[in-house]
Amino acid sequence: MAVYALTGFSLVSLLSFGYLSWDWMKPSLVADVATDPMEKSLPPTFTRPPHIIFILTDDQGYHDIGYHGSDIQTPTLDRLAADGVKLENYYIQPICTPSRSQLITGRYQIHTGLQHSIIRPRQPNCLPLDQVTLPQKLQEAGYSTHMVGKWHLGFYKRECLPTRRGFDTFLGSLTGNVDYYTYDNCDGPGVCGYDLHEGEDVAWDQSGKYSTFLYAQRVNKILASHSPKEPIFIYVAFQAVHTPLQSPKEYIYRYRSMGNVARRKYAAMVTCMDEAVKNITWALKKYGYYDNSVIVFSTDNGGQTFSGGSNWPLRGRKGTYWEGGVRGIGFVHSPLIKRKRRTSWALVHITDWYPTLVSLARGNLSNVQGLDGYNVWPAISEGKDEGKESPRTEILHNIDPLYNHAKYGSLEDGFGIWNTAVQASIRVGEWKLLTGDPGYSDWIPPQTLTNFPGSWWNLERLTNGLRKSVWLFNITADPYERYDLSEQRPDVVRSLLMRLVHYNRTAIPVRYPAENPRAHPDFNGGAWGPWASEDDGEEWEGGREPLKSRNKKKKKCKICKLRSFFRKLNTRLMSNRI
């Protein structure tokens, strides 16, 4: 039913966009793509550490960018990517907190205790305080560091806040999702509060400003007040395009021909974000940073298909370990790239940005132990043709011992070395293994098409009820995960299970504490913010081996689940109105 519930667009919508050019920054200063695709820029000389702009979008689907064939207009991102290096073998995590924690620490979530779910607003939990963060390493290297946007790495203590974790300045939200105008966030019925912060204070005066515009304007202000002679790092974590689906009306009007209401609003938000990136790029050029800058663009997880996102033709969606949940949009744009205007198939993971960017900044990594990331700059800047391949050969997508165990998994199915009921996923070379319950496994065709020929996704839906807890794919030959080879290649299954065993031996206990009533915004002046004193200990659950925590389950809010069910149902009903 999932496919049919989300196919409420007309094919005509692909052909009938009305393009409104609401140019709020002057004409684009992003250079057009060279007509000669073989043209190579001269190798630049690094005379000083580069300015680093890291742009992270929220819930943007793999299909939802122009150069992936989308019906959504992203002219700025398309130009930046075309003139830089597109990363088409790039991986992220399936949900918010894990991707952000791995970006900031360079470590898999099994090594920070954040391997289960997200950090929720009322949990006494945050990014472990003993972790040296990416901005802290850049500060050591002489950088001015700034964050704009969504944090979502915990805030129950002041020590957890962005300004205590390496950022000189911060403007943004601490929780996972807020209203784009009012900045209100409800974590269940009656548990609502304001969430926009300037540094460590509540930014009440900014209410009413659309967050995508607000964040781009703040980046402009930071660049205007800083000297381009001094290195700067700006982490722009857009709230867009996470729910709630909100956008200025002029952007929605562009997509008025889209029948699917959720997709229409979502598309407007993506295009609005694209223009915000245009504004940031313009500011880099206007204030003299661009020629010595590195712009990294990344999504944080797969798109949420019932909220307008599309990961087509990949399988799965946000929150799953199928490719649609973990393969991200990524590119690097910089005058400092030696071989521009190309697509890279080098294996890259979000943990790799930590050592890559610190190395670019000429920072010191010798005193940082246990990183899971690699320096992939040579592979990005020069590439395989120049003998610079990615040093990465495998990715641990995750091991989550607390996620609901698969009904039909067992230690016996895992050759006596791994309980296949446990949710886990790993890629080694061209092989990808999934165990337990990987999450919603369908392929969701683009919502613009009402009828799709072929039946392989229907076949999967029909066979989805088989008693399975192990899947194996040659992800290089079969990136859409159509052909499960677990029965044909038990030798590969066993080999990858051994890698999971290896990683699990290095995992620390899960940090997923119960919610604390002291976190209620009513006790904090109506806003979300720190509630624990500096003397309070770290209140987190743990102390056992990860896979021995199998019987510990998080508390569930039945009202919240019911509300979520009706919200999803309403979205699907709206998508069928034509």
**Which bin fits the share of residues in helices?**
10-25%
Which second-level CATH architecture of the domain at 51-392 applies?
A: 3-Layer(aba) Sandwich
Q: Rough shape?
A: globular
Tally of alpha and pi helices: 13
Poorly predicted residue ranges:
1-44, 448-463, 540-564, 566-578
Tell me briefly what this model is:
With 578 residues, the chain is an alpha/beta fold.
Give structural notes.
The chain is of the alpha/beta class and 578 residues long. It has a domain at 51-392: Alkaline Phosphatase, subunit A, CATH 3.40.720. It has helices at residues 2-5, 75-82, 96-105, 134-140, 211-225, 249-254, 261-286, 323-326, 353-360, 377-381, 456-463, 490-506, 558-575; strands at residues 51-57, 85-87, 90-91, 144-150, 169-173, 184-186, 192-194, 197-198, 201-202, 232-237, 293-299, 330-333, 342-344, 348-349, 394-400, 423-428, 431-435, 470-474. It has a 10-stranded mixed sheet with strand order 9-8-5-4-10-1-11-12-2-13, sandwiched between helices. It has a 4-stranded antiparallel sheet with strand order 15-16-17-18, with helices on one face. It has a two-stranded parallel sheet with strand order 3-14. Strand 16 (423-428) and strand 17 (431-435) form a beta hairpin. Helix 5 (211-225) packs parallel to helix 7 (261-286). The radius of gyration is 23 Å and the shape is globular. Residues 1-44, 448-463, 540-564 and 566-578 have low confidence and may be disordered.
